[in-house]
Amino acid sequence: MVVQARRAHVDAFGKLHDAQRRGVVRLQPLDGTGNEVALAPNRRKLTQTPRLVAHEQVHKRIKAVVASTMYDMTRVMSKGYNDRTTREERSKTLEQLGQQRWQDAENGKPELGPIYNELKGGEPQFMVEYADYYRTPRGFHPRPVLFIHGEKAHSRYFSETAYAAAAEPKELMIIEGANHVDLYDRMDKIPFDKLTDFFRTRLR
């Protein structure tokens, strides 16, 4: 589904820009949700490439791809950092997770995990660097956000809930008469003027 969404993005941009001069920039792509690439011309070379980056690399309508600070979450969760997790360690972790799910089901609520990036000393350097970003204002200063949703979209409440929870500056734009999929490709429904104004104002 996610790969198909990326292809739909390319469809839409092709109507707006030169179809032969299209590139993609992905900042810290986390799309390691699967290493399989259905149409990869050389599967062996792409088996360790996160799915969406690999998709963009072999998608002939995309002429160039930039992946900045890529993170393959599937690989990390499966093999650990630097691929150091053994099969036995992974099996033990999966067993523990399964038992925890049974306990959560019996208790009627999930057991919360440890506080993320709470430094106690002796952590790897990259964890210290993470804490310097994610546990300081550096990683949490609010950015302007614009939520756009169709008036008749079944999913409208997602944007409304997110808007209510978001920090200022924020905007919510409801497109009159539009449903969920209208904003995928209905050029008369997509608020290009609003998008242009938003970015021109906020990217000064």
Shape: extended
Number of helices: 9
Structural class: alpha/beta
Low-pLDDT stretches? 32-50
Strand content: 5-15%
Number of domains: 3
Rounded to an integer in angstroms, the radius of gyration calculated over CA atoms is 21 Å
Strand order, sheet with most strands: 1-2
Explain what the structure shows.
It is a single chain. By secondary structure, the protein is an alpha/beta fold. It folds into three domains: 72 residues, no CATH class; 25 residues, no CATH class; 61 residues, no CATH class. Helices cover 43% and strands 11% of the residues. It is built from nine helices and four strands, in the order αβααβαααβαβαα. The strands form two sheets. It has a two-stranded parallel sheet. The chain has a two-stranded parallel sheet with strand order 3-4. The longest helix has 21 residues. It is extended and about 55 Å long. About 9% of the residues have low confidence.
